[in-house]
Design a protein that fits this description.
Elements: H1 7-14, H2 16-21, H3 25-35, E1 62-67, H4 74-86, E2 92-97, H5 100-109, E3 116-118, H6 127-132, H7 140-143, H8 163-166, E4 177-189, H9 190-195, H10 204-216, E5 220-222, H11 233-244, H12 246-253, H13 263-277, H14 290-298, E6 302-308, H15 311-314, E7 325-328, E8 344-353, H16 361-371, H17 374-384, E9 387-388, H18 401-413, E10 417-418, H19 422-425, H20 427-443, H21 449-465
Parallel strand pairs: 1-2, 1-3, 5-6, 8-10
Antiparallel strand pairs: 3-8, 4-6, 4-7, 4-8, 4-9
Helix pairs in contact: 3-5, 4-16, 4-17, 11-12, 11-13, 13-21, 20-21
Keywords: Signal, Transport
InterPro entries: Bact_solute-bd_prot1 (IPR050490), Chitin_NgcE (IPR022386), SBP (IPR006059), TAT_signal (IPR006311)
Subcellular location: Cell envelope
Length: 475
């Protein structure tokens, strides 16, 4: 997720840009996928062994295409060198692009896709389409293979919470391996709080009291990407899940009738609406974009910002040296919350896929296994200031305050990590309809919480009845 810059990064979790870009070509893409090419173009499998658990053909070429975004390409190039050292007879063709869909659609149509793709950026291919049309390899063999650093543990056992689940769309098959790991929540400057002689508020009364204190100093409590209000759920959704339990978010993801009418949704909406009503949101916020909101925040005009852990890199140009950026889980509403303070939304980003018609799918999965080694993970984190899907891999690294706080937040959350799927199951519903058409309107004061809840349910009901949409459910 954090690998893209600006709009590209946002599209990783929302796919709207990709949908817009492929709205017409998708028809030819789908028809080509459906018609199918011969599947007999696979390289011969190699012999499985302790050192080669996936049975990689040691001399077969590997074709790897990476999205060239904010994470750059160096981390992947370094991992490719490890593959080449492990399989010196294999010729690796490594390329990078920002135009994933434009450049790779013809190859999918022709039945000659790469062996491994970082399907990311503004031209990200729609995952639901790829999964629905059976165009991706099930990565279960990778997940069940021994990990590089500790062969006694399977790859699936060394991954952070939610990584496997995010790659699952129907049943137990896993089609996507999200390599980066994003911590969503409420971002703040420890320096700014210190100046107010304040700690991060762990309940809503304390949040409102701190916002009131800041307001007296001419500082807003909150700001957000007003033009893209689907950023608000980065803290609002786990707030709702914390209040009512993860089943509330699961029901929303499942498009269940009356899911948006749950008391936890009502409580969450009303709490956030109170920020607007009491003037604790930075004036003009509904009219600014993500960069402008982040800039206002780093300039000290507002205390809190709902965002993801890519914000450190994205806002680096305006962040003072003494800002001491941190992230925290949403405040509790009160002591009646179903889940404890520290409950967090964290999930994978930067989705890697192995096409079903790849010539060397075993090689593609082996490259991912290498990337999930501690050395490759540390290399990534050290160079791009982001965590990976590897659960750990930060020992010995000098972490920034933002990364330290993200690691600490994950440790505090423990098993209480939420992973709403609306954002990747139903992109348009989450972004344009619920995000912009309901939550954004509420936070701008143009809709009451009750009206926003009703509108969200109407949008969800319409999506549930739309037979043109592939529907998914939590297991």
């Amino acid at each position: 997720m954090g690998s893209t810059s600006g709009i590209d990064r946002r599209s990783l979790i929302k796919r709207s840009a990709a949908i817009g870009l492929i709205s017409v070509p998708t028809m030819s893409f789908l028809s080509a996928c459906a018609s199918g090419e011969s599947a007999d173009n696979k390289v011969e499998k190699g012999e499985k062994s302790t050192d080669n658990p996936l049975g990689v053909n040691a001399s077969a070429p590997l074709d790897f295409v990476l999205f060239d975004g904010g994470f750059g390409v160096e981390y992947a190039e370094d991992a490719v060198k490890v593959y080449e050292k492990t399989y010196p007879k294999a010729k690796v063709k490594f390329g990078s692009t920002q135009k994933i869909q434009s450049e790779l659609q013809p190859r999918f149509n022709g039945g000659t896709p790469p062996d491994l793709i970082d399907n990311s950026g503004a031209e990200q291919m729609d995952m639901g389409v790829l999964v629905g049309k059976d165009q991706l390899t099930d990565l279960t063999p990778l997940l069940d293979a021994p990990s590089i650093d500790d062969p006694s543990k399977k790859v699936r056992d060394i991954l952070r919470p939610g990584i496997v689940e995010m790659g699952q769309y129907d049943g137990d098959a896993c089609y996507i391996l999200n390599y980066a790991y994003t911590v969503y929540g409420v971002w703040y400057s420890q320096t700014a709080l210190d100046k107010l002689d304040a700690e991060y508020p762990e309940d809503w009364d304390a949040m409102l009291a701190l916002c009131a204190k800041a307001k007296k100093k001419g500082i807003a409590g909150w700001t957000y990407a007003g033009k893209y209000p689907y950023y608000i759920p980065f803290s609002l959704y786990p707030f709702i899940g914390k209040i009512g339990g993860r089943d509330v978010l699961d029901a929303i993801d499942n498009l269940e009738p009356n899911a948006w009418k749950h008391p936890a949704v009502k409580a969450g909406f009303e709490a956030y609406y109170e920020l607007y009503k009491k003037g604790y949101v930075l004036k003009g916020t509904p009219g600014i974009d993500h960069v402008e909101s982040q800039t206002a925040w780093t300039q000290g005009k507002a205390l809190f910002l709902p965002n993801g852990s890519w914000v450190e890199n994205e806002a680096a140009g305006t962040t003072p040296d003494d800002f001491e950026m941190k992230v925290a889980a949403p405040s509790s509403l009160d002591s009646s919350d179903k889940l404890p303070f520290g409950t967090l939304w964290a999930s994978g980003g930067e989705p890697f896929i192995v096409p079903k018609k790849a010539k060397n799918p075993d090689g593609g999965m082996e490259q991912l296994r290498i990337m999930l080694s501690e050395n490759s993970s540390k290399n990534f984190t050290g160079k791009v200031k982001s965590l990976t899907a590897l659960n750990g891999g930060t020992d010995g690294l000098e972490l920034t305050s933002a990364l330290k706080s993200a690691v600490a937040a994950l440790e505090k959350a423990g098993e209480n990590i939420l992973n709403p799927r609306l954002q990747d199951w139903y992109v348009e519903l989450q972004k344009q309809k619920i995000g912009v058409g309901a939550i954004g309107e509420m936070m701008a004061g143009r809709m009451t919480p009750a009206e926003a809840m009703k509108k969200c349910q109407e949008f969800a009901d319409a999506a549930a009845k739309d037979d043109s949409i592939k529907h998914y459910r939590h297991k």
